[in-house]
Amino acid sequence: MTRDVNRATGLSEKLYENAGLVFPVLATGAALAAASFIDPYLAYVATSWVIFGLLGLSLDLVWGRGGLLSLGQTAFYGLGGYFGSILAINMAPLTGNTLVWSLPAGAVFGAASAAALGAIIFFARMGPLQATILSYTFTLLLWSLTQSLKISVGQAEIGGDNGLSNIPGVVLAFRRGAESLDPVEVFVTVVIVSAAVYFLCWWLMRGTFGRVIDCIRIDPQKTELLGYDIRKYQVASFSLAGAIAGLAGAMFAAWANYLNPSIFSVQEALLVPIYVLVGGLGTLAGAFVGAFAIGGLSYYLGGGAVGGQTTLILGIVLILLVLFLKNGLVGAIGELWRRTLPDANAAARDAGAVSIDPGVLEGILVEAAEQAGPAKRLATVDLYKQFGGVIPVNKVTRAFEPGRPYSLIGPNGAGKSSYLKACVGIYMPEAGSVVVGDVDATNAPIFERVRQGVGVKNQKPQIFGELTVDENLAIAAFARTRDRQAAADVSRRILAMLGFEQQAKVQASALSHGQQQWLDIGMVLCLAPRVILLDEPAAGMTNEETRELSALVRTLARHTTVIVVEHDMEFVRTLEGHVTVLHHGQVFAEGDIAELRADDRVLDIYLGRREHV
Ligand SMILES: Nc1ncnc2c1ncn2[C@@H]1O[C@H](COP(=O)(O)OP(=O)(O)OP(=O)(O)O)[C@@H](O)[C@H]1O
């Protein structure tokens, strides 16, 4: 009996993990089964819902997964529709098959226009609101342009407001004069193409590419601190989404046999996020479910796919959704299902205190040196950073080398964190230079400095809370190894070193603050850094953990250059390293901790006394 229950739970878990794969198989099966009895008119209307679902999928990739609400998806959709149709109008009479021309053309033009817009958005490092507005402006621009654009391209005549007509329907045979498919056949064809596109997206987003996109959504800075050039990933996923929208547009044109500038209208642009929200943001399948739910509802209420009742229905549905189903239909079903499964996060409570075996750590560090080369020196010359009237880094000239750990101390606001941030490129300095090894890194972006060997742990633990513990380590290790197997090996060793094997499948957000600090340190170690910057790593740790951390830092310093910012003077003492006191962004005093503790001037700045304040 117990075994049966376990087996059923195991099966349910497997199904839950692979539900995304089951969806296109079921959808295709249902479409094929329905083909024998479905009313041709319903098949015709339902085809448009599938196409809108595909358009929604393109948005879900960039919004639900990438974190950017693009109102440009209908622009890529319209462009794909226009260009795909121009090619189909000219080529189909000669060769038959329309989709073989229009789908690739739609996808290529959709991808190319998205790549151009994405490059502007991401390389200019626009904020989310700016990016949404720019994408919307792009759509409006096309709407306005196509209103007055009258041009003939071969047999295709674009008539401005009158649009582009005579677009051939869906023809699959390769011969002149081949017949268009009937509505039911078109429905099945569109479902199969959409299921294939969906499967490709599901597969891609399940792999390392999708993980990196998820990481960028959760914490772009941390993703860059792992050494990923996030802008390339963002442009790539935006282009992929553009390709899917373009392909959907080409299918829409073949379905409607007609296109006009209203495809770029405000109403069209705003419908897409609604499909995604209703279905479930970030679920991929939700876009189709949302399009079917809204399309089906308005169809049965007699309004047609975008008919008179639609606005009212959408308004009510959206209000109800915001009130009761925040994760949309698919998200809600997923959540209910997940509740029936064993709670993987329960293991977070069983995690004992971290106790690092020095032998294991040494082994990891020796191997890291073999793979990534010897430790590097970090030096700054007259480094200067200003925020308005505040100068947190004021012409700091310092060099750090392997051997003993370096500690940066100083009162609150002395500029310790700002100095580390200027070293790694989170803050771009106004003057001075940063040199990593022999390379001037002053103007290098964060990810390049990380690739040069700089590893950083910021003050707050930066972990990807929605990912599991082993996924966090693996994505960090992959940034360096670029090989999934090698990354899995590295992350497994770090996981074992931290004693987190039982917590491998726990969501990182379920860990305690101290455990998150260790996970963050583990992620930095996965990068095999040659210079390590740790900003208040002991914050939130117990005394026992702080002792472990001290031993770890001392071991690290024998293999790499280590700089630690700390307030905990007892911790700094145990590091037995070189200490630099910063005050008002400048080096105020240096030495070992015993000397500095006895130095009246240092006490003065800490206690806010006398002339040194
Ligand atoms: N992004 C920023 N914009 C404006 N001012 C900033 C910024 N970052 C830091 N500062 C200012 O620079 C000064 C130094 O801050 P910083 O965090 O580097 O000090 P700190 O020595 O690390 O302090 P703490 O020990 O409290 O963390 C502060 O006055 C702070 O307000």
Automatic annotation (TrEMBL):
Q: Where in the cell is it found?
A: Cell membrane
The record's InterPro entries line, in alphabetical order, gives: AAA+_ATPase, ABC_AA/LPS_Transport, ABC_transp_permease, ABC_transporter-like_ATP-bd, LivM-like, P-loop_NTPase
Has UniProt tagged this entry with the keyword Cell membrane?
yes
- Protein name per UniProt: ATP-binding cassette domain-containing protein
Please report the record's description of how this protein sits within the membrane: Multi-pass membrane protein
Tell me what organism the protein belongs to.
Answer: Bradyrhizobium brasilense
Where in the numbering of this chain does the ABC transporter domain appear? 378-609
Is Translocase among the key words of this record?
Answer: no
What Gene3D superfamilies has UniProt attached to this entry?
Answer: P-loop containing nucleotide triphosphate hydrolases
Principal location class: membrane
Please name one Pfam family that this protein belongs to: BPD_transp_2
- The entry's keywords: ATP-binding, Cell membrane, Membrane, Nucleotide-binding, Transmembrane, Transmembrane helix, Transport
The taxonomy runs: Bacteria, Pseudomonadati, Pseudomonadota, Alphaproteobacteria, Hyphomicrobiales
* Regions that span the bilayer: 21-38, 44-63, 75-93, 99-124, 184-205, 235-258, 270-294, 300-325
Q: Name one GO molecular function term.
A: ATP binding
Described by its record, this protein's role is as follows:
Involved in beta-(1-->2)glucan export. Transmembrane domains (TMD) form a pore in the inner membrane and the ATP-binding domain (NBD) is responsible for energy generation.
